[in-house]
Amino acid sequence: MLSTLHQYLNLKKDIEVPDYSQGSKRYDVVARLYFLLNKLSEEQKITLLKLLLRDKLVDYLFKSIIDLSDNQRLVLMKQLEQITSNPARYDRRKFIRKDCLINAKISVTNKILPCFIIDISPYGAFVDTGEGIWERQPAKLMFSSPNNRERLILSGEIVWCKNQGAGMKFSHLTPKQLDVLRAFTENKRKVYEINSC
């Protein structure tokens, strides 16, 4: 998804700009953008921000810092000093997740739902389910391996939910399943789009 967005941002001169002579259309676009932004994961929002700001990210952050109170700046400075002195301690994930778009199915509470895997690592995935599911539910994620089309059924638990997406943590994976996931996530290609199993 973000790769496609990056292409659109680079080709924006080729896109027709809508006529905003009618004020309500502008607000419809803003409302739709707000809705779509709220569906992005935190990682996707950060990637989008980097794409939009490109080499001006530090300037943007510094402008935001200027707007903070003196106390807020001191707290932020202490936090940044701690993070930069021990970055491994503040890394939220042990493994980088790979952006992808994989048509899959997820089984939760005796229901099998169609979904898309938006990002994945050997130990978890973010899935867009199109409908809400609940945290702390056991789940099974079913899809075909992007590398060899081998059918995978990965067991785990839903650890967080937001809007129509959910974070799943894998458990009890076999060494073979781990190898298949590692081979996929370490591949240099950025995004995969494949059919379901």
Order of helices and strands: HHHHHEEEEEEHE
Number of helices, counting only DSSP H or I runs of 4 residues or more: 6
Give the second-level CATH assignment, the architecture of the largest domain.
Beta Barrel
CATH superfamily of the largest domain: predicted glycosyltransferase like domains
Query: CATH first level of the largest domain: which class?
Result: Mainly Beta
**How would a crystallographer describe the biggest sheet?**
6 strands, antiparallel, barrel
In helices, the fraction of residues equals: 25-40%
- The name of the CATH topology of the largest domain is Thrombin, subunit H
Measure the end-to-end span: 21 Å
Q: How many strand units? A: 7
User: What would you call the structural class?
Assistant: alpha+beta
Radius of gyration: 20 Å
Tell me the strand order in the biggest sheet.
1-2-3-6-5-4
Q: How large a portion of the residues is in β-strands, by DSSP E? A: 25-35%
Broad shape:
globular
Q: What's the number of structural domains?
A: 2
Describe it for me?
By secondary structure, this protein is of the alpha+beta class. The chain folds into 2 domains: 89 residues, no CATH class; 97 residues, Thrombin, subunit H, CATH 2.40.10.220. 38% of the residues lie in helices and 27% in strands. It has 6 helices and 7 strands; from the N terminus they run H-H-H-H-H-E-E-E-E-E-E-H-E. It has a 6-stranded antiparallel β-barrel with strand order 1-2-3-6-5-4. Strand 1 and strand 2 form a beta hairpin. The longest helix is centred in the N-terminal third of the chain and has 17 residues. The C terminus is likely disordered.
